[in-house]
Amino acid sequence: MAGHWLNTGDNAWQLAAATIVGLQSVPGLVVLYGGIVKKKWAINSAFMALYAFAAVLVAWILWGYNMGFGPKLWPFLGMPSPALMGHYELSQADIPAAGATAAFPMATMIFFQFVFAAITLIILAGSVLGRMSFKAWVLFVPLWLTFSYCVGAFSLWGGGWLAQLGVIDYSGGYVIHLSAGIAGFVAAAMIGPRLPRDRESFLPNNILLALVGAGLLWLGWDGFNGGDPYSASADAGVAVLNTNIATAVSLLTWTIIDVMYFKKPSVIGAIQGMITGLVAITPAAGVVNGYGAIVIGLVSGSVPWFTMNVLGKRMSLFRKVDDTLGVFHTHAVAGVLGGLLTGILATPDLCKAFGLSTPGGWLYGNFHQFLLQILGAAFIIVLNVVMTAVLLKIISFITPLRMDEESLLIGDDAVHGEEAYAFYGEGDRKPVLGD
């Protein structure tokens, strides 16, 4: 039986928030990836996301949770151990970074943090769609979770050294998005590009399906940012409102620039602008006011647009590295922008409401916070460059990182023996003589 500490409202909100964050991945990014890629890669792309969701959960409960949120082993990592004992799951949840407790059980906290870990791997997958070997992906997911994600999570959220210094990452601009964007870019460079014919012509096979996934992503973000006060609090409401303000402004900004530059509004562009707004507000959601959210939306709808559509086409590094869905721009660039803007725009009142002792950002006279945000970003970047490269090199000794040439030519049917759409006869995958 739970003790007097249990607040059923907080527990209900935390479980609801965790569930809608989970829906961002399954089916959100599953169907977004399945619709936004070339038809021959729809199954493989969706399955990479689905596999990651399941594999992360198993690794998370066996060792990952306590590496990210458990007792300190080192200043940047917790002690690996299972999070499965019944008495432990029923006990009151700890909030390591704040040195406090929540009014719900550990089981709720473990599940809530799992869906964040899972979506990070799924976002990363967007950089390597259309050529990474599924066998290599199977090995990469639990290894990267263990040696990269858990280190960043403990450092910023689990009471590690960056948390103790005072770096603010409200809901994962650094831990999730900057990590995924940098790691995805490194992985894309090491695995190599798609076939030239795929890279030159990679038209979405179902834009409407991609929009369904995008919608689940947007509204699921209410749980993403609204769940991080760990209570059904006033600050949760601020975070949800700011999330939607920044996202709407970013989407509109991206679309306006598309019209000015390309002379046409693009649905895919609007989805990109939506994502950059969601990412950029994430490290700031509950510590900036509505005006700050608007500023973040304007910046996230314009700077990543420029890096993707101008620098991405002119700089040799971006032309050489085949980041399939532009995850570097939508997540790494937007994530670091959001983190730095947090160091400028965070207000003293909202920092206090979130339980931080930080006296606001640079705009409120605390330039030191901006410097801390730079330090946090630099650590996450270096961590993910090094760890991703090392892990992929080790995996390459076990199995090729890249699919064989025949699979690259054929796609889903060669890799999984399945195709996304049956256009022949009554569900047959191949024409039948006489049809």
From TrEMBL:
| Transmembrane segments annotated in the record for this chain | 12-34, 46-65, 110-129, 136-158, 170-191, 203-221, 241-260, 267-285, 291-312, 324-347, 367-392
**Which Gene Ontology cellular component annotation is one that this UniProt entry carries?**
plasma membrane
Protein name per its UniProtKB record:
Ammonium transporter
Pfam families in the record:
Ammonium_transp
Can you name one GO molecular function term for this protein? ammonium channel activity
Q: Which UniProt keywords apply?
A: Ammonia transport, Membrane, Transmembrane, Transmembrane helix, Transport
Determine if Cytoplasm is one of this entry's keywords.
Answer: no
Task: Report the locations given in the UniProt record.
Answer: Cell membrane; Membrane
How is the protein disposed in the membrane? Multi-pass membrane protein
- Signal peptide interval: none
What family is this?
A: Belongs to the ammonia transporter channel (TC 1.A.11.2) family.
Q: Which residues form the Ammonium transporter AmtB-like domain?
A: 12-421
